[in-house]
Design brief:
There is one protein chain. The protein is mainly α. Among the domains are: 8-47; 62-159, no CATH class. It has 34 helices and six strands. Strands 1-2 form a two-stranded parallel sheet. Strands 3-4 form a two-stranded antiparallel sheet. Strands 5-6 form a two-stranded antiparallel sheet. A hairpin with a 2-residue loop joins strand 3 and strand 4 (226-227). It starts with 7 loop residues before the first strand and ends with a helix. InterPro entries: NLR-like, P-loop_NTPase, TPR-like_helical_dom_sf, TPR_rpt.
């Protein structure tokens, strides 16, 4: 959004959490106009800029309140006239606040109570609330919503069937929006999964009770033929009839934030049941993870770090896996670290569950760009698994594959290739050529071959992987989409940019549709497409996409993450082609400095950053500095990749070009002679 050059609105609704600073979500565009709704008067003034920028909405008039009550209570004109004085008394008691009036009207409609009976019950319940007895509803810090709102809400809640009340209590520990039948249906299908059937660490009595509660609750929506949409919809319709829940017509239910807060105060014991219910949704479908993540994040805010640490490690591991799958690696890291600590304490350092937890934590560190830490942990995992389980055990083979993936990020392609060939051989012998793990091993090896410049060999493997994915999973499965993207990247390496562009547009469209515009995999697809557009000479379109990618990387990963630096380098390359050499140089010097500090001077990504900066310096006429860098790049490429690798040849060509500009023709001729010899 920061790149838009026309006026646009950013709308943030219900900014009622005093612990969240919304300024971090504001676009820095000069064209943005931000609208925030909040019930926190202090926050309203904190976010405002200039006189008159805070608009405080006043309560309804008596006439407006009467009309709203009549509409939501479904009162006839005759009933409104007959009960005029009682209605006036009720809306006055509710301070003419629209939410309270609508809640009261819905309760009258649902219960069938006369207005005078509702008013009597309202007065009785309010007295109990004021007295502090017989109720568990807790106060909140929300401005302008005093006791009368809680009273109307509680009356509506109390008339619901127990099944609907239980559903609402569970929903109060989820995010207040995006509540779907699919979420509960997935939980029902997974609730008896082995995560709760067996574990090396016993579940506490509290967790066992929560599991039984979750299972029994979900079985209320089961008919003779399994899950019953009719039963679930009836329950949700009951909750909607009192205005506690609302339905948007797109299979999503939501709860007003104030009601959401009230519900959470009714019964604290539902917290663990909600943990179990959400953790039970075992799925490899990325779309499911995307839909779950808001609920997981909200659920985790309901407990302190210390309380989370006491949750069973398998539950935390399931939640961490979901967070990591949508790119929230820092959040996942915290949970997976708790899992490792608990397994280490209860099972010992060499137990298979502890080693598995260590591997998961290391993989998350790799995603965060902490490659050295990840390598150390994964080597320890592999060594212990080889010793304890043997070299042919599936867990040992997985550990070897994880270590190879990390070595790729460290630029150690030759070492990674040896491991990946061993993994692929063992997968083929143990599982057969068409098993998903075998296909994954083939995909990983192909990626390493690309890093080694062996694109033709990689292409053959990736076409086989894609064919098997399409046949086994269909064209829209996440693994199939990955296979299309990987093949497109290899085709770019082979110079087949038009075919690559078609594939990358397909990948981007499917990821935007399935995962949303801000998912890490969607952003990756955008970056890949922009890189291909650059190669096709479509620099202006490439720049627009790359600026959006960079903005999302900086916001999601921070300024120093490897993926952010990669996005900066891509943008600088395009700026160079657009003739914006000074801007490109500034970006490339920053990228090179950060990669030298983060990855070391000999990492392939660092060498590439040096090569890119040297190209820009050449365009700026700074040939002496460019020559020094290009000699260093060539030396490192020859030592690491050999004289015939494509990247080495490119480095030689760059140096020859600069030497010609420096009129060192004899040296340039020597380099060009080497190029001709290698071309033969």
């Amino acid at each position: 959004m920061s790149n838009l050059d026309t006026e646009f609105f950013m709308y943030i609704d219900n900014a009622d959490d005093p612990t969240i600073n919304m300024r971090g979500f504001f676009s820095n565009s000069d064209y943005v106009r931000v609208i925030i709704t909040t019930r926190l008067s202090e926050k309203a003034h904190h976010y405002s800029q200039g006189d008159g920028s805070v608009l405080k909405l006043q309560p309804l008039s008596e006439e407006e309140s009467t009309k709203l009550l009549a509409k939501t209570a479904r009162l006839s004109e005759e009933a409104v006239v007959r009960n005029g004085s009682l209605i006036a008394m009720l809306v006055k008691e509710l301070c003419y606040l629209p939410l309270a009036v609508a809640q009261a009207g819905a309760c009258i409609s649902k219960s069938g109570w006369a207005v005078h009976l509702y008013l009597e019950k309202f007065h009785s319940l309010r007295a109990l609330l004021l007295d502090g007895r017989n109720d568990k509803v807790e106060a909140t810090a929300i401005d302008d919503y005093p006791l009368h709102f809680y009273t109307t809400w509680k009356l509506s809640y109390d008339i619901l069937p127990e099944r609907a009340q239980a559903l609402l209590r569970l929903c109060s520990y989820l995010h207040h929006t995006g509540i779907t039948e699919q979420l509960f249906h997935d939980a029902y299908r997974s609730i008896s999964h082995e995560i709760f059937a067996s574990s090396s660490i016993l579940f506490s009595s509290h967790e066992q009770s929560a599991y039984v509660n979750a299972r029994d609750f979900l079985h209320q929506f089961v008919g003779d033929e399994g899950w019953s949409t009719e039963n679930f919809t009836w329950c949700m319709r009951e909750a909607c009839s009192t205005s506690i829940l609302s339905f948007d017509g797109t299979e999503h239910y939501s709860i007003h934030p104030l009601v959401h807060s009230c519900l959470r105060g009714v019964e604290k014991e539902s917290t663990m049941t909600a943990f179990v219910l959400v953790a039970s949704i075992i799925s490899t479908d990325q779309v499911t993870w995307v839909q779950l993540v808001n609920h997981i994040q909200h659920l985790l805010t309901c407990w302190t770090h210390g309380e989370c640490a006491r949750v069973h490690p398998q539950i935390l591991e399931s939640l961490g896996e979901a967070l990591g799958s949508v790119g929230l690696h820092n959040d996942a890291l915290e949970l997976l670290n708790l899992v490792l600590i608990r397994n280490h304490l209860d099972l010992g350092a060499d137990h298979s569950d502890t080693l598995w937890a260590m591997g998961n934590l290391a993989n998350t560190l790799r995603e965060l760009g902490q490659y050295d830490k990840a390598e150390l942990m994964l080597r320890e995992v592999l060594e212990k698994m080889q010793r304890g389980l043997g070299p042919e055990h599936p867990g040992t083979i997985s550990a070897m594959g994880n270590l190879a993936n990390t070595l790729i990020e460290l630029g150690r392609y030759n070492e990674a290739e040896l491991m990946e060939r061993e993994v692929l051989d063992k997968r083929q012998r143990g599982l057969g050529p068409n098993h998903p793990y075998t296909i994954l091993a083939m995909r990983n090896l192909a990626r390493t071959l690309c890093g080694l410049g062996r694109y033709n060999e990689a292409e053959l493997m990736e076409r086989e992987v894609l064919e098997k994915r399409q046949r086994g999973l269909g064209p829209d499965h996440p693994d199939t989409i990955w296979a299309i993207g990987n093949l497109a990247s290899t085709l770019c390496g082979l110079g087949q940019y038009n075919e690559a562009e078609l594939m990358e547009r397909e990948v981007l469209e499917k990821r935007q549709r399935g995962l949303g515009p801000d998912h890490p995999y969607t952003i990756l697809a955008m970056g890949n497409l922009a890189r291909t557009l650059h190669q096709l000479g479509q620099y202006n379109e490439a720049e627009l996409v790359q600026r959006e990618v960079l903005e999302k990387r900086q916001r999601g990963l921070g300024p120093d993450h490897p993926d952010t630096l990669w996005a900066m380098g891509d943008l600088a390359n395009t700026l160079r082609e657009l003739g914006q050499y000074d801007r490109a140089e500034l970006i490339e010097r920053e990228v090179l400095d950060k990669k030298q500090r983060g990855l070391g001077p000999d990492h392939p990504h660092t060498i590439l950053a040096m090569e890119n900066l040297a190209r820009t310096l050449h365009q700026l006429g700074q040939y002496d500095e460019a020559e020094l860098m290009e000699r260093e790049v060539l030396d490192k490429r020859q030592r690491a990749l050999g004289p015939e690798h494509l990247d080495t040849i490119v480095a030689m060509r760059n140096l020859a070009r600069t030497l010609c500009q420096l009129e060192e023709c004899k040296q340039a001729e020597l380099v060009e002679h080497q190029l001709l010899e290698q071309g033969r």
